[in-house]
Structure formats: structure tokens, C-alpha cells
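Re: the 473-residue chain
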Amino acid sequence: MNHPAHHISQAPRDLVGIGIGPFNLSLAALAHPLTGLDTVFYERRPRFHWHPGLLIEGARVQVPFLADLVTLADPASEWSFLNYLKTRGRLFPFYFAERFHIQRAEYDAYCRWVSENLTAVRYGHQVDAVRWNPELALFEVDFTQLDADGEAEAVGRAHTRNVVLGIGTEPHVPAPLRPLADAPGVPVVHAADYLGHRDTLLTAGHITVVGSGQSGAEVFLDLLRHRRAGGERLHWIGRTEAFAPMEYSKLGLEHFTPDYMRYFHDLAEPVRDRLVDGQWQLHKGVDADTLAAIHDELYRRTLDGGWPDAVLTPGVRVRTAGRVAGSRIELHLEHVQQGTRTRLTTDAVVLATGYRERPVTPLLTGLDPYLRRDGKERLRVDAQFRLTLDPAITATGCHVYVQNAERHTHGVGAPDLGLAAWRSATILNAVTGTQAYPLPARTAFTTFGLERGGPQIPPSRQVKALTPLADGI
């Protein structure tokens, strides 16, 4: 039996990134030109892919192209989306296309171009553990180097002053549906794997899409477009009270600014928790253009005077689910507002039930004695995206940073691509102890809270109290 070779890096790194999704890729791109900063980024996958199961033709990223990996921190960066277009000879076609929101597949290709050209990126490297070495006053990062088949071929250890966790999210399957999703041969798939199963799904007699967010809308629209008029046999259900559009007003979007993130971070923990639960329409609604496209497609199918065989019902939750008649699926549904219950028999289910932050604690088991938690046992994260650790570690200047694992402390902007470059720049400024990337002091017209001591009114705007007039005058 061949045992993997063992490698230990000699000189300590300044920063080790774990996971290479858009957020750590942004960090790697902005770190690249900082001379003297020694970084490396590990990812277990063999190459970059961004939600490949949802790269549906025509589906667009819900943020403008300026929300690339670097532009909002460094518009002159060689890793900008516009420079990517330039290297591909596509600047003029993009200019004439007049697209502010690019296709998801194009964003995926852009990120892959960046990842393939950064020397600090290491694919096929699975990080196994992170520990603190008090004698060296450094973090130890153990990893396994994988071959083309995903088998271990070498193990290694890197020492570093800083660690950045960017391990992303994972598909969420609600508890009532997990037995079906785990059963072999049952046509129940998460939307994350939709494209890989689309041909099989389209052969099903009746298809149900569960989930009323953007992914559910895109999957429903794609299925609708591929089913014949009058024979659609589609159901679309979701828990929200409406198939609601995402908040996209100018001032509403200011919830995705550094100003709001700082404001949110300073709020009391119970207030933050209440806000996150109530702000679903800021990030879980459906793009208005997608809703319009669904309505247009449904309307087109009424031109002969009939109605499409498609049922769209919001405000519905799945209580339980099981198999009936061999291969068919039975969903037990409850309408939240009516309080009524029914059963829906279907041949295939697509779970557009979203994603959850991938737990970071299993990776940090070796750091557990040093971690500080909040009232709900969640990791505390400071304003610079650093985990709150025992002073024995932080006194040395070493830190663990997180990307997209801080919604409970930083709000709805945590998973937003538009804040990727700003957060990466914030982290790099903290790591280097310099203003490597000068950041704006103000980013929103909205002032989200009152200044301490009350709102400050400029002297020119102050007025004296008026004496009330006598009655009848």
C-alpha cells in the first residue's frame, strides 16, 4: 500500500485561504499585487466552478458587472471583468450589448480565468485541520494533496499568521424531504444539481418545484419553456406568502453597503437576529425580469383560449413526503394562511430550497478552546471579519478571518457579491496593518442610525422654538 508523501512548508505564510469560491478568489486577486505578502489558497476541487447546476441559459447574475472580484476596491486591477473581456477581444461586443447584468455562465467563466492565472491558487488541496501552535505562535494548516481522481497523493502542513475561511455554502434540504432526496433512484434533486438531471426530469409526467426564490423561479421557467403547450403538468409551490420580487429600489439596495454592514454589526444580538429573519425580500425574492418572463410564457400559452396546465401556489409548506405506487412521490402540503391541508402526487421534485452556510466548526476543532461564542453558540466575528479568539492568540497578531459565514453578525450583505471586493480589501488592510486599499468612509445616502447623543443638526438648519399663538389669532 502506497502512503502519501509528507511535505511541511518551511517559512511561515502571511495568509492561508481555505476554499476558493468568489469571495476567497477576490481576496487572492487583490492580494496578488501586494509585494511582500506571502499567501496561498487551497481548494479541494480540481478547478473553479460556480453553481454549475444552475448555469441555465439566459440566467443572469443579480448584481451589476461592477460587482466583480476587484473593481469596487481597485478599478485599475488587472483582474477586473472589463480586463477579462479585453483579453478575450470582447470589449466592443460587450459595449454594444449594453448589459449591466451579465449572464451567470459568463461570470463563472470570468472567475475561472482569474483562478487559472493566479499563482497563489492551489486546486486539488483538501484542508483537513487548523490548529494553533503556541510554541511557534502560528497557525498550523494540515492539507491533503489530491490526484486527478481525487485520491490522496501527498499530505502537507503550512504554518501561517492568518487564516481566511471561505468554504462557502451547501445545498439545504428541509427535514421532511431528506429521506426522499437521499433515496436512490427517486427523482428528487436539489436545484444545485438541476442541469445535470434536466433531461431525466423532463421525461417525468408531472414535475413539482419547491421553493419560491430566484432558483425556484429560474427552474420553473426553464421547465415551462421545455414542456409542450397544454401538457406542461407543472406545480410551483413555496413557503413565502407571494412570488415576490426582490427589493431593488435604489435606497433599498443601500442595505448592501459597508455603511449598513457596520450599522448592523453594532446592533444588539437579539435585534440582529430579528432583522435577518425579516429581511428575506432583500435577498431571497425573485428578480422582476424573471417573474415577468414567467408571466409572458404563461400568457403566450393562453392565446388559443385555454389555460396552461401549471399551478403556482405560494404560502405552502411541505409537512411530510413519501413514495407511493412504486416510483411516484406524495407531498403532504399545508397552506399557512388557510390552515388547510392536501396531498400532491407527482413524478419528480426539484428542491429550490436554498443554501446554508457550510459549518466551519468541524474544520476548527483544534481551535475550539480558543473560540469565543455568542448567546446561541455561534462564533463571534468582529468588524474586520475576524473570529473572536482567546487573547493568547490575538496578542501575537495572528487571526482567523471568515467570508460569508457572518450573516448573524454582519447582516444580509454577507453573501452578496457586491461586497466581495470591499470585504477582501478590509481583510487585507487588517492583515498588512496598512491602507493597502483605501476604502471610502461613506457609501450610502441613508443614515441607518442616530448618532450617539442624538442627531446632529447643522447650525444653519437650527430654528428657535416658536411661542404658541393665542386662540383666535
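The longest helix spans residues 104-117.
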